[in-house]
Amino acid sequence: MSNEIKPDQLLDNIDHTPASGSWMDTPVQIRPGMYCYAAKAESVETLGFPNARPWNPMEDDWKLPENWQEIIHNGIKERLEKFRTFKVFMDICVRCGACADKCHFFLGTGDPKNMPVLRAELLRSVYRNDFTKAAQILKMIPGGEKLSGGRPMNLDVLKEWWYYFFQCTECRRCSVFCPYGIDTAEITIMAREIFNLLGLNIDWIATPVSNCYKTGNHLGIQPHAFKDMLEFFAEDIEEITGVNVEPQFNKKGADILFITPSGDVFADPGTYTCQGYLILFKYLKDKYGLDVTWSTYASEGGNFGFFTSHETMKRLNSKMYAEARRLGVKWILGGECGHMWRVIHQYMDTMNGPADFLEEPVNPITGTKFENAKSTKMVHITEFTADLIKHGKLELDKSRNANRIMTYHDSCNTSRGMGLLEEPRYVLRNVCDNFFEMPENTIREQTFCCGSGSGLNAGENMELRMAGGLPRANAVKYVHEKFGVNTLGTICAIDRAALSTLMEYWVPEVKVYGIHELVGNALILPGEKERETDLRLEPLPGMEDEDE
Amino acid sequence: MMTENCEVVGIMNQKYMLPLAGVFLLFLLAYAGVEGAGLQWFFGIVIPYLAVIAFIWGFVNRVMGWASSAVPFRIPTTCGQQKSFPWIKHNCIDNPDKASGVFIRMLMEIFLFRSLFRNTKAAFNTDENNKLTYSWEIFLWAGALAFHYGFLVVIIRHLRFFLEPVPAWLTFLEYVDGIVQIGLPGIFLSGIVLLAAALFLLARRIFDAKVSYISLAADYFPLFLIIGIAATGIAMRYFTKVDIMGVKEFTMGLVTFHPVIPPGVGGLFYAHVLMVSVLFAYFPMSKLMHAGGIFLSPTRNMANNTRAKRHVNPWNYAVDVHTYEQYEDHFREKMIEAGLPVDKEE
Predict the structure, then answer these.
(1) Of A80, A339, A84, residue with least CA distance to A209
(2) Looking at the 3D structure of chain B, how many domains does it have?
(3) Distance of residue A539 Cα from the nearest chain B Cα, in angstroms
(4) Interface predicted TM-score (ipTM)
(5) Nearest CA in chain A to B109
(6) Closest approach of chain B CAs to the CA of A547, in angstroms?
(7) Residue ranges making up the domain that contains B320
(8) Which domain CATH number covers B75?
(9) Are B340 and A224 within 8 A, CB to CB?
(10) Using a CB-CB distance cutoff of 8 angstroms, which residues of chain A are in contact with residue B319?
(11) What are the pLDDT digits (tens) for A224-236?
(12) Which residue of A317, A486, B55, B83 is surrounded by the most CB atoms within 10 Å?
């Protein structure tokens, strides 16, 4: 494991003042702990991507196709025409530096090439050399090449790109502060598309993508196993509540299709959030007759295709509408996830719509029309639950969460690529009494990434993840010390996994909870027995003694 | 150590000494060309016309180039609460769902540099707390705003050289700009503000380690050029007292396409004109195009309503997908065994 580096050591290494000299003359050093392993050949092959072969970033020879420079040049050219974002963002940066200290990776590593502006300049320098008039004019003057700020593509530059574009989590925090809205995520997305033209994906992205395509979810859980896992949760819930929540699968004619990241089905503490969903759906079924189905085919809400290429994102996302059409549901409900919601909110309808075979989503229990989702026809679970609570449709016992002293982490994608800020907070306040916000420069649209987003939540890049998560952890530590916060709420599956590791490293006293885990704890199921434990089988507040 | 220092100086030279030298060279070229070689017609007539043509042609080309690129997805950066329920307060400017909200958001970006206004400065205190703190950093915003508005007023004031008769509103603007009366001729605040702000931005670029590290020659050149333009302008107005009637005769000649070279206007004026011309010609192929680009930035100029209103991608194409039928074919037996419903029982 490469997270042998201790927190104190990591902190000592941070220096935000760049060395003197020119960044262009500072060659990249690919360092263990800071990069993810190369994609396995078989995972690259599943989706028919080029240049599938075993390779190792630490070796000199990356086994690139012969004409790799031409592929990159043409790849940039094509994307400049297809994406105005890319073209405009290549041209208009004035290097004012407002973004420099907004990136969690820069704050956590002090590596100047993690300043968003410089990350973009890595690509922009090649763009200038290959595509701009100014550089072409300056090249004619002796020494003019240096003046243009351009540089030709070579192997060192490619390796530098690869290293740093896989040190960006596409969180968009820099874009909030940029006076022109330049979004480094957009530039990273283009760079990663280009890597995939050369077979340069990382395995933590390529293998989930391959699994998701073939099996339906990132982890490659086969249909029977998926069903087993949810039924196993049902058994746990029955033990705690005395009620069998009976999840339904692939049910034609159900009212609603529910899709959530498969991480919730498999990885703690997401599994408890998943149990929260099951409890909610059982409650709604018994009380109001709402029929919700899960799908084993569309059993992945997340979309690592988004971290591969626009086309791959579309190929994976297509299953959501296809399954909703096949099952004949009215509309789709989506679970707690970050990038999944960026894809649904800003891309899905455009890529795979129109969803004219679905109904404009209405909450059948409250009659609320989800006007903001009337075209895409997919509703976020915290929108749905907030609406139910607002209309008094849920019977909640907050005291069961009384031992949770909460703060709330806005996930990057739902805050900066959607604006889902108040809905989860509303749910949170209704299921838990103790809620303290982190400092305002670290929440809502200014929220800090967990440091592991966009497919970087692997094991081998642990130093990078712990450094990138430092600003988030630092803010949690602040409220932990000031208010005694012991619980970090999130609505993102990657967060639930990544923040747990991050907290263990920086603020071990704080545990990570999904919002619907807290809902599951608080919700009083019809006919339930007196609960003694929460979903984690830990004694409820006031039950500690009886447990002994 | 010595060689290292030399190298560092060498890099600094490349980054700002060359642009600085370039601007000096421009100055000398025009000054000597006019005072020594009598090339008034070249620096006063040929160059300005070419520069304006290059500016217009280049600007239009750049904007058309951007506009010709597709906008496949609606991907605004949302900086506030989305529109969802009537009982949740929607931030209709920072997360606009309608064109009107986008319009206000863009106005605030363009005229008030709203995003830059948010700027913070992160500091890492290495003590027992190891706390990261973020404080509001207003100076870049203030400097940028002063620079752009100073420049704007200077440009508008210069219209007096191109309009005859001078309209009343322009005289009024001059009156406001010259409200601080010290000596004669009266001081125009805009010129001073422009020069001071440009010097501040330059100092920031040189002395802030992070900004210095990211800066290119292309960042210093326009700053030196604008400082040169402002300095020559101020020198002519307050110190050398250029023949203002002669200058007006010259500029009116240019705009009416009957160019004339008035007597009694010296090399300093032509140096000013050359630097302005170079700025014009350089503008479209440089980062200065942010002036046009900001209008076309998809993260700011689009409404965040993709779930409510479908956005169409002009190049959307069909892709290979793994269909449910393929999936069921693959897993049918296991699905039947697990009691999962299947479409084909086989």
Answers:
(1) A339
(2) 2
(3) 33
(4) 0.93
(5) A179
(6) 37
(7) 316-346
(8) 1.20.950.20
(9) yes
(10) 311, 314-315, 318
(11) 999 999 999 999 9
(12) A317
